[in-house]
Q: What sequence folds into this?
């Protein structure tokens, strides 16, 4: 009896419940840094691991500011990785689908790799024939960023900084960029963007994580139920360049104002879905005020995981991994086949430098670009 009493006393002193011997003391938020790999040019790439008191974990590397993993709980408290990616740096060095990366200078497409600004025409790389895509051949996704971690109250994060020189990938002006990832106690990943330039330049920064809330790496995302807070979208031509129209989603397969499974209409005869080979479209977010507005709400029914996205940006590209083709082997040996991940890329509209009626993406000297997007994770019981 004395031995049992001593055992229970030990458990209590250790902060445990004698009935299940489970620690009851809360964890502390933490941020850790380690070496992830070395580039062919000999640059060291570090990985920062952010963990909050609830156990949610975000891992991001200095190569491309790439989010390599996002571990979040399901309705039973089981943690899984809900972001597509690779186990090592080698996988990210080519990374044709831009898994997890910061995208810049210009996220999405610019028609025929050309734009005219202040009377001068600039020529960019054609890396998504016949157009320019996601900043070019060596965009921000392939830069080694400087990084500094922080801990503030119960939040932890990492600040990535990068200077893009004048003429980088054909863009004018030396551009200084700062992207901050903050993991909050509420299981929110906040992404804050800032930029300044010494010459006028187009700028459209976004984050290109592929999500799969099932978390097991073996299923497609067609059963995920999506709501998008947008009454309009920007229709595209056969090369996925916006026509310039802001069209109503009413009566189309792009109407996600009410919850719909990704797979419910992805095989429809809707001409826009056919042009996109699925969903690969910019949605014009409904906005009644400045600041953050809801962009998307996604539920994975088997795990109960929920993702809510809010942003200060005017648009969001909804992309359903249509060009994943099984040629990439990701984390834990998972083969990434078609539609095994989806992206919610908050952004300005594609090809805005060539579409004067679209919200301007031109950043000028003396101005500071600021943008914020929040990826909030929860569970649906």
A:
């Amino acid at each position: 009896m004395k031995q049992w009493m001593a055992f229970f006393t030990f458990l209590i002193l250790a902060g445990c419940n004698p009935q299940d011997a489970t620690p009851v003391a809360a964890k502390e938020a933490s941020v850790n840094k380690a070496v992830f790999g070395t580039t062919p040019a000999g640059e060291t790439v570090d990985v920062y691991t952010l963990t909050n008191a609830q156990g949610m974990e975000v891992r991001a590397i200095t190569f491309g500011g790439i989010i390599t993993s996002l571990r979040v709980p399901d309705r039973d408290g089981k943690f899984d990785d809900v972001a597509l990616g690779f186990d090592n740096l080698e996988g990210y060095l080519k990374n044709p689908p831009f898994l997890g990366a910061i995208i810049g200078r210009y996220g999405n497409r610019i028609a025929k790799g050309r734009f005219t600004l202040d009377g001068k025409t600039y020529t960019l790389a054609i890396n998504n024939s016949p157009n320019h895509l996601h900043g070019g051949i060596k965009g921000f996704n392939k830069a080694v960023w400087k990084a500094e971690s922080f801990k503030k109250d119960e939040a932890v994060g990492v600040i990535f900084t990068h200077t893009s020189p004048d003429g980088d990938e054909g863009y004018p002006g030396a551009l200084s960029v700062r992207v901050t990832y903050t993991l909050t106690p509420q299981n929110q990943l906040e992404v804050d963007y800032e930029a300044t330039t010494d010459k006028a330049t187009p700028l459209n920064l976004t984050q290109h994580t592929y999500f799969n809330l099932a978390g097991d790496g073996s299923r497609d995302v067609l059963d995920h139920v999506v709501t998008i807070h947008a009454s309009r979208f920007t229709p595209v031509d056969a090369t996925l360049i916006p026509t310039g129209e802001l069209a109503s989603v009413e009566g189309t397969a792009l109407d996600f104002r009410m919850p719909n499974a990704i797979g419910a209409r992805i095989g429809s005869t809707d001409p826009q879905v056919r042009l996109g080979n699925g969903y690969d479209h910019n949605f014009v977010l409904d906005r009644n005020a400045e600041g953050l507005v809801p962009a998307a709400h996604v539920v994975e029914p088997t795990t109960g995981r929920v993702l809510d996205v809010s942003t200060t940006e005017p648009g969001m590209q909804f992309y359903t991994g249509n060009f994943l083709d099984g040629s990439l082997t990701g984390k834990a040996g998972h083969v990434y086949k078609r539609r095994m991940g989806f992206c919610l890329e908050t952004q300005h509209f594609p090809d805005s430098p060539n579409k004067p009626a679209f919200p301007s993406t031109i950043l000028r000297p003396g101005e500071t670009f600021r943008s914020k997007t929040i990826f909030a994770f929860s569970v649906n019981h």
Summary: The chain has one domain: 30-379.
